[in-house]
UniProtKB/TrEMBL annotation:
It comes from Oryza meyeriana var. granulata. This is Major facilitator superfamily (MFS) profile domain-containing protein. The chain crosses the membrane at residues 29-53, 59-77, 174-193, 230-250, 262-288, 300-319. One of its GO terms (molecular function) is transmembrane transporter activity. It is found in: Membrane. One of its GO terms (cellular component) is membrane.
Length: 329
């Protein structure tokens, strides 16, 4: 458990920063979507494999897979150059100014934007506060991330108990539902994200995905038959695109030396929401599934989770188009 606490979030941040250093801005949203789709495909494969393995064997296979991933990274993945190759390849016009330094005014177009020096120590709270207050893009994206993660985790926390109490779902039925969500979400990110992101742009796609997330939660809360959750799960084909869109928006706004920092901050904000969410939604779910509920609405906690995502949707709509573009030189 302690290893997972240290390693899992770090791997996500570093992987996203690596992708940002290697992929030009024009294709970064699609790349983030493909990366997330591959991760979700791994989740589906692991879930399927666990059905055919014993419990001890499952942990052994997971350890071997993790070791193989570490060996692969050490042998084949090269260190990045901080995005310098993208600049040399002609991506200067799309390069982003750092978030933590003020924009420098210069009459010469040949002057490069300021760059943060490589970080030699962990970020302090003051550094994170400066990051949140300096960039309106990042502060708005942080709020969207927090409320979306709060609602999404609340939905995941409450759904199993709701389905078991309302429709007497077994663990196998719930596992099948998770497989439907995983397969649909993986295909969406691998196929739809590369197609839709260049045509619609990250902001429009983010709004559509958050709208799908809200519908996802509200429809779960009013499910009237055991087959309805399976139908509602198909909406994940839209809602799963939220995270790649937010990550791409922030990545385009950050400087080459800040990719890991901003992705790590977003992951930290999301993790904070993931900690708060069960504390709020678990008692709420238990209350409305009990006989002491103030009114008869067993899916009330799911509706509240959808409302949190509705707040994220409102914040994303209020983002001005100028906030989504890199500063001009």
């Amino acid at each position: 458990m302690l290893t997972a606490m240290v390693a899992e979030s770090s791997m996500l941040c570093l992987s996203l920063a690596y992708v940002a250093d290697k992929v030009p801005q024009s294709r970064r949203a699609a790349a983030f979507g493909v990366f997330s789709g591959v991760c979700l495909a791994g989740f589906v494969a692991g879930t399927v494999a666990a059905r055919f393995l014993t419990v001890p064997c499952t942990f052994q296979v997971a350890a071997v897979a993790a070791l193989a991933a570490a060996v692969y990274v050490r042998a084949f993945v090269q260190e990045t150059d901080g995005g310098a190759s993208l600049l040399h390849a002609g991506d200067e016009e799309n390069s982003s100014r750092p978030l933590c330094l003020p924009s420098c005014s210069s009459s010469s177009e040949d002057v490069a934007p300021p760059a943060l020096p490589p970080l030699r120590k962990a970020l302090s709270l003051s550094d994170m506060a400066a990051l949140l207050t300096t960039s309106s893009t990042f502060s708005r994206a942080a709020l969207v991330t927090f409320f979306y993660s709060l609602g999404e985790t609340g939905l995941q926390t409450s759904l199993l108990y709701f389905l078991k109490a309302q429709f007497h779902y077994t663990k196998n039925q719930y596992a099948n539902l998770l497989l439907v969500i995983g397969i649909t979400g993986s295909l969406s990110q691998l196929v739809m994200m590369p197609i839709l992101a260049p045509k619609l742009g990250e902001q429009k796609l983010l709004i559509i995905a958050l709208l799908g997330s809200c519908m996802h939660g509200f429809l779960y809360s009013i499910a009237w038959s055991p087959w309805v959750p399976y139908l509602v799960a198909s909406l994940v084909i839209i809602s799963i695109l939220v995270n790649p869109c937010i990550r791409s928006i922030v990545s385009k706004r950050a400087g080459p030396s800040e990719q890991g920092m901003v992705q790590g901050c977003l992951t930290g904000i999301s993790s904070t929401a993931n900690v708060i969410s069960p504390i709020v939604f678990s008692p709420l779910t238990a209350w409305f599934l009990s006989e002491t509920a103030p009114f008869n609405f067993r899916g009330f906690s799911l509706a509240c989770a959808a409302f949190a995502m509705l707040i994220a949707l409102t914040l994303s709509i209020n983002m001005r188009p100028a906030e989504l573009q890199p500063d001009s030189k």
